[in-house]
Amino acid sequence: MAEKKATAKKATETKAAAAKKTTTVKKAAAAKSVLAVNAENVGFKAGDVYQALAAAEKALNVKEIAKAAKISEEETLLGLGWLFKEGKLANDGEKVTLA
Questions:
Q1: Contact between 60 and 68 (Cβ < 8 Å)
Q2: How far apart are CA 67 and CA 76, in angstroms?
Q3: SS3 of 29, please?
Q4: What is the pLDDT of residue 59?
Q5: Which three-class secondary structure state does DSSP give residue 19?
Q6: How many Cα atoms within 13 Å fall on the side-chain side of residue 98?
Q7: DSSP string computed for 47-94
Q8: Distance (Å, rounded) from C-alpha 92 to C-alpha 89?
Q9: How far out from the chain centre does Cα 58 lie?
Q10: Three-state secondary structure readout of 22-39
Q11: 25 vs 49: CA distance, rounded Å
Q12: Average pLDDT per 10 consecutive residues for the chain, totaling 99 residues
C-alpha cells in the first residue's frame, strides 16, 4: 500500500512539473518597422497625406488622416510637417485641412 502512494505521489509531481513547463512561454519582442527618413520618403508620405485630405474634403485629425492614407501616425506627422512648411495646410485646432 505504501508503494502505491509513493508511485501516485511521483506521478502527480511529474504532471505538475510538465504543466509548469508548458505554462512558461517566452514572449517574442514585437518587430518594429523602420522608417527611412529622407527627402524622397517624406515627400511620398506628404503626397499620401495630401491625397487623403483632398479625398475627405473636410478637416481631419492625425489618426483620421493616417487611417485614410493607410500609413502610420509617425509617417503622417512627417507628411504634415512637409505640407505645413510648403503652406498647403491650415490648422483648425486639432484638425488639419487643405489651405
A1: yes
A2: 9
A3: coil
A4: 93
A5: helix
A6: 12
A7: HHHHHHHHHH-S-B-HHHHHHHHTS-HHHHHHHHHHHHHTT-EEEETT
A8: 10
A9: 25
A10: HHCCCCCCCCCCCCCCCH
A11: 41
A12: 60 62 60 74 92 94 95 94 94 89
Among residues 31, 98, 99, 40, the alpha carbon closest in space to that of 65 is found at 98
Q: Is residue 84 within 8 Å of residue 76, measured between CB atoms?
A: no
- Dihedrals phi, psi of 28, to nearest 5 degrees: -80, 140
Q: What is the pLDDT of residue 61?
A: 94
Quickly tell me which residue has 505521489 as its cell: 9
* CA 69, chain centre distance (Å): 15
- What residue type is assigned to position 62 of the chain? V
CA dihedral 10, 14, 19, 25 (to 10 degrees): 140
Single-letter code of the amino acid located at 59: A
